[in-house]
Design a protein that fits this description.
The structure holds 2 protein chains of 2 kinds.
Chain A (H helix, E strand, L loop, with lengths): L2 H6 L6 H11 L7 H13 L2 H14 L5 H28 L4 E5 L1 H9 L3 E5 L5 H11 L4 E5 L5 H10 L5 E4 L3 H13 L3 E5 L9 E6 L2 E6 L1 H9 L3 E10 L2 E6 L11 H22 L12 H4 L1
Parallel strand pairs in A: 1-9, 2-5, 2-8, 3-4, 3-5
Antiparallel strand pairs in A: 6-7, 8-9
Helix pairs in contact in A: 2-8, 3-5, 4-5, 9-10
Chain B lengths: L1 E4 L14 H13 L9 E6 L5 H22 L4 H31 L5 H20 L5 H24 L1 H12 L1
Antiparallel strand pairs in B: 1-2
Classes of the chains: A alpha/beta, B mainly alpha.
Chain lengths: 298, 177
């Protein structure tokens, strides 16, 4: 290993932090955990790009608020993020399940009885934990689509420590993946996708969030239209220590008409309404560390 | 791991608490709670000793405040300044059993779960520190005696829990089934 490759492990997306978190989960006594969390959440604030990203997003979600207020809010986002990623690792390593409350349970049950569905969610609460729990409690096959880890060592670590029952696909091999997912949905499976931000060069659709123009991934909507299945907006919200709420909203049905763009626009509008409502209520759990809106990034 | 579905009263199951005092309080609350109390549409509760947030947060706060007081008493500074400095120091000191003990245990026994050993070590270190400060003539003596008082109350609670073990088990089974 070269010297630069060795140092890379300490970068934000480096493998060291994953190993460190796993070490903490297997070492820290639960009654010391809140102190450790509070300390490391302050440490997160040192991460400049992440802090600035959250602060810029908060400026849009909470217009007119002071920068100092948003700094405290930013700490709250990091505090929740720290608990969330820890709960996820704890589940993988120790099989510790948090308490779950369900809202919109009739939609959640309906999703499982459907012959195929798309679960559309956001970077909120514990997406990983929710998907893993779902895969272990549901008879339906679930495939999770996500962006791959950029660091090769981190990618290897995650593959080694991932949940066995959950199939994860990466959104890099677009055409091939689209056919795989279409096949999964048509076989009655559920495809879980995060639909709140566009990463890399994946195709997108225009949208409006908090009154500002943005884009969302086109994949889930195109897949729903091709497979003729509904999209279920699902959010996993952290309520407190080892306590989560799974919110399932009314399904988004994409009806085919002569104008495909209009079909997509209607579905995207409904999705954005759900997303905006949940982010508005649970802004402290929207784990988007880059400026979300293009004008902010610029 | 065991889970209970749609039983809001199960939040108070003594099995979901770690310390004897909390288990006893949990048992008393469980006896008083109604099975038909308000609940979300669907609820899944895990049965794990460290599941109760209030208990864990209170213990963490107690441990942290105790450590801050001991450090502030030990620092050769005026009290307000010592307390201000002791707060970040305490956060670092509390990490020591983990960052020193954890790698050592891994070196000796390999990869694994060492929560119990670190937990006992940390509590033992606090006990030693409390023993030391209880004998000094500083203001931290009161904090040290409070630490021992809480330990005594918890020990008494563990004796009561032991005597009530049959009734507790029956109450838990009634709630779960």
């Amino acid at each position: 290993m070269t010297r630069s490759a060795w140092w890379r492990r300490f970068l934000v997306r480096g493998v060291f932090w994953r190993q460190f978190l796993r070490f903490a989960v297997l070492t820290v006594p639960p009654w010391v955990e809140p102190i450790v969390m509070a300390f490391w959440s302050i440490f997160f604030l040192v991460w400049g790009p992440g802090r600035r990203g959250v602060m810029r997003n908060l400026k849009v979600i909470k217009p007119g608020s002071f920068a100092i207020t948003n700094l405290f809010r930013c700490y709250r986002v990091f505090w929740n993020y720290a608990w969330t990623i820890t709960d996820n690792v704890r589940f993988k390593e120790l099989r510790t399940i948090p308490d779950w409350e369900f809202t919109g349970f009739e939609h959640f049950q309906e999703m499982q009885t459907r012959e195929g569905a798309i679960l559309l969610t956001a970077h909120m609460g514990s997406y990983d934990l929710g998907a893993q729990l779902f895969s272990e409690t549901s008879a339906r096959r679930i495939v999770m689509v996500r962006a791959p880890e950029t660091d090769p060592q981190t990618r290897e670590f995650e593959e080694h420590h991932g949940a066995e029952s959950l199939r994860i696909e990466f959104n890099t091999r677009a055409t091939e993946l689209a056919l795989d997912l279409l096949h999964t949905v048509r076989e009655g499976g559920i495809v879980a996708i995060q639909g709140d931000r566009v990463t890399g060069s994946i195709s997108s659709l225009p949208a409006t969030l908090f009154g500002k123009p943005t884009t969302v991934p086109a994949g889930p909507f195109a897949l729903a239209l091709a497979a003729r299945v509904p999209i279920y907006p699902v959010f996993v919200v952290r309520l407190g220590r080892r306590r989560y709420r799974l919110i399932t909203s009314r399904p988004i049905e994409i009806t085919r008409s002569r104008n495909r763009d209009d079909d997509f626009a209607r579905a995207v509008t409904q999705w954005m309404m759900e997303l905006e409502r949940v982010i508005n209520e649970c802004w402290f759990q929207w784990f988007t560390f880059e400026p979300h809106w293009p004008e902010q990034a610029a | 791991m065991k889970v209970v579905a749609d039983r809001p009263a199960a939040r108070w199951l003594p099995s979901r608490h770690r310390f004897a005092l909390a288990r006893l309080i949990g048992y008393l609350r469980l006896r008083r709670s109604r099975l038909t109390s308000e609940q979300p549409e669907h609820l899944i509760l895990s049965i794990d000793r460290d599941q109760t947030a209030l208990e864990i947060h209170l213990v963490a706060l107690w441990v942290f405040v105790t450590t801050v007081c001991y450090l502030a008493a030990a620092l050769p500074l005026v009290l307000p300044l010592a307390i201000v400095l002791a707060i970040p120091l305490a956060a670092i000191v509390i990490h020591l059993p983990v960052v020193v003990g954890g790698p050592l245990l891994r070196l000796m026994f390999g990869d694994g779960n060492y929560i119990k050993i670190i937990s006992v070590t940390t509590m033992a270190l606090l006990l030693i520190a409390s023993g030391y400060f209880a004998t000094t003539a500083t203001w931290a003596r009161a904090v040290a005696w409070l630490f021992f008082a809480i330990l005594i109350v918890n020990s008494l609670a563990s004796v009561i829990v032991w005597f009530l073990r049959g009734a507790i088990q029956a109450a838990e089974e009634r709630c779960v089934h």
